[in-house]
Amino acid sequence: AKREHMLLHSSEDYISVRVSAMLEVISSKFTDLETRENLRKFSDFLQHYYHHVNYGDYRRIEKNFQLLKDMDSNLDPNFQMLVEDELLEDLYKILDGANYHIMDENEWNFSLMDDQLVYFPVEFHWDKLDGAPFKRFDARHSSLNGFSKDMLIWKRGFGEHVVRGYFFEEKVDLIIAIIFNQIPISKKLGYNNTDATEKYIVVDDISGKHIERKSLSDQLPSFISIIKNFFTKITIQEPSYDFIVTVSRDKNAETKELVLESYKDISMCDMGNIIPQTRIGVKLKDKIRISLVFIVGLILAVMKLFVSNDSGGVIFLGILFYLGVKLVQLYNNVKDSKNLNKRILAQLLYSKSLASRSAVLFTLLAEKEQQDVKEVLLSYYILLQNPGLTKERMQILCEEFLEQEFKVSITFDIDDAVNKLLEDDIVNEKNGIYYPNAIPDALFTLDEKWDKFFTYAN
After folding, report:
1. Is 364 within 8 Å of 98 (Cβ atoms)?
2. Single pTM value for the model
3. Rounded to an integer, what distance in angstroms lies between the CA atom of residue 252 and that of residue 277?
């Protein structure tokens, strides 16, 4: 039996349903045309209202990004820290509102436990990143148990990535690895074999859904299994994230600018490829080829000590020259292979990268607005249909509605929804029981708030 490594994945609180689809279903529950029209107005008011509220955060974030980009190294370091901290807190506010979650240490370690789908050996150079702003953020939010390296990683959405193919080159690498792993010094040469007796499973803590990692070495654990299936397509399965957002800074950059990047459909085992300052390593078969040439040259050098005649010396020099030429050829081949892998990796990440910083910020802002609207709209509807609910009962009914109407299973963020309902005077609370204001009253309240945004005195 395989030894299991299990990662418990917290259920998502991201509502993937479109606002228009939710409004259509909610409106259909009412027969009165006036109520339906008022609900449409209510939804429109919410969307405009939350866009204006959140746009202030966006402008402040952009301003601070630009300040850091233009910052002179001679400026007060305390001012720099102030700008960095404010930027990260505002960014956290938007990402949290869009239902992104900080990647924690357990998830990061689990991600790197098995083979990569991309199958590139990668090396991390954390020392080339400036982690000071992110370590201060971690200290302020220690309860998040964030990924404690020199950057921040947010993730949202969870699924599986399935790849099917022949993987001829990877199968050859596995054969070499299996053979080479029998040599005691193999680990000293940089090879770390994946134990075929290990089993990696991600489990959703609400639905109980299991996603097992099925890497190439899992499917082909032995030399015989590789030979038998060499011309057979193999299916690789890996847990994946729908969206990833990273913030980092190069220690040697000319400016103090923080780099914001966003990716989609990233497999857990390929997380290492999106880390800044990641370097493509040398594959095992290339290490073996270089090592063999070096060993043969070393043996010849030792043999030369026991050869005294001239002809032996000439032969030795000829062979040594040939080995030197071969070593240079191998080095160039390895260098070309690494450059090719870099280009492939760059193309892969480009296809999964979403946009520039400003576009990423606009996207995150829009996602936060949509989440705010959906949370308020749904919780308000539930109260309209069931006046006098506790917060806990409201959450259950919201989750049941999403499951029944849209087959969406999430943990509804009731705290955030109730706080907005109270702040915007849409509901009333008495002794932990919540009551909705009538739709016309809610519209009047939102209209007043909107008018106050644009006051003008002659």
Report:
1. yes
2. 0.77
3. 11
